[in-house]
């Protein structure tokens, strides 16, 4: 039986060759398209170009400054030398030595004046060298323990003698009263100063402070001095 088609006219016979030829042409055209470069003849559109008008350029002004002439040196007149006759007697000034020697008298200790200590009249509690001692704190060893004991005894004294004033209760008054007083050189309490929200609260705070016992006074450099102490008392209704 004979075939219906002519083998010479079969298109599939050289299909692989045609494929490679076509691919080569396509790659060549793509390469030429990528490598193609174009140049603009006119660059007037370039905004990066800066053109400066010649009329805007200013010439630097040349200033001529006349410097003052240097001062002329002063010519000093040479001292006048006088020649004295040999017959004239000239008294020479004798300069005595100020160094001490064995004949120099030494001042007595009693005659030497001693400057007084510049200790202030009143020193705050936090700055005093030896703080006042509250009765019952004498057995404390260190200065810090004595200070802590002092403040603790002050708080106990306030809690023990505290009493809310009746007028303040009726009016619903409450607040903090700032107290400052001075422990004198003899250990007594003086110079009481109060500031609070109402007079009745200030009177109660003054009554509590007035019941403080006498204390051992504070000392600065071993000398009894006045010591100022401040504390608040808070009045609060339940």
TrEMBL record:
Subcellular localization: Cell inner membrane
Where do the TonB C-terminal domain residues begin and end? 149-238
Q: Which InterPro entries match?
A: TonB, TonB-dependent_transducer, TonB/TolA_C, TonB_C
- Cite the entry's keywords alphabetically: Cell inner membrane, Cell membrane, Membrane, Protein transport, Transmembrane, Transmembrane helix, Transport
Q: Which stretches are transmembrane?
A: 16-34
Q: Which PROSITE patterns match?
A: TONB_CTD
Q: Name one Pfam family in it.
A: TonB_C
Topology relative to the membrane, per the entry? Single-pass membrane protein
Which protein family is named in the record?
Belongs to the TonB family.
Q: What is the name of the protein in this document?
A: Energy transducer TonB
Question: From which organism does this entry originate?
Answer: Flagellimonas aurea
């Amino acid at each position: 039986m004979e075939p219906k088609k002519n083998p010479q006219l079969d298109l599939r016979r050289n299909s692989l060759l045609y494929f490679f030829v076509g691919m080569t042409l396509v790659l060549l055209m793509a390469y030429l398209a990528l490598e193609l470069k174009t140049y603009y003849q006119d660059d007037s559109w370039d905004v990066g170009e800066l053109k400066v008008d010649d009329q805007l350029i200013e010439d630097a002004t040349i200033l001529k400054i006349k410097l003052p002439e240097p001062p002329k040196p002063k010519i000093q007149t040479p001292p006048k030398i006088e020649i004295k006759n040999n017959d004239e007697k000239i008294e020479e000034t004798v300069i005595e030595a100020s160094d001490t020697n064995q004949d120099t008298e030494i001042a007595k200790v009693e005659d030497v004046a001693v400057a007084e200590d510049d200790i202030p009249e009143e020193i705050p509690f936090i700055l005093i060298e030896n703080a006042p001692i509250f009765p019952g704190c004498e057995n404390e060893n260190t200065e810090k323990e004595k200070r802590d004991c002092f403040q603790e005894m002050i708080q106990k004294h306030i809690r023990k003698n505290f009493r809310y004033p009746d007028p303040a209760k009726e009016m619903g008054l409450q607040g903090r009263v700032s107290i400052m007083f001075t422990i004198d050189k003899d250990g007594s309490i003086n110079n009481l100063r109060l500031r609070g929200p109402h007079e009745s609260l200030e009177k109660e705070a003054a009554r509590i402070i007035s019941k403080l016992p006498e204390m051992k006074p504070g000392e600065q450099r071993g000398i009894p001095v006045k010591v100022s102490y401040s504390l608040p008392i808070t009045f609060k209704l339940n």
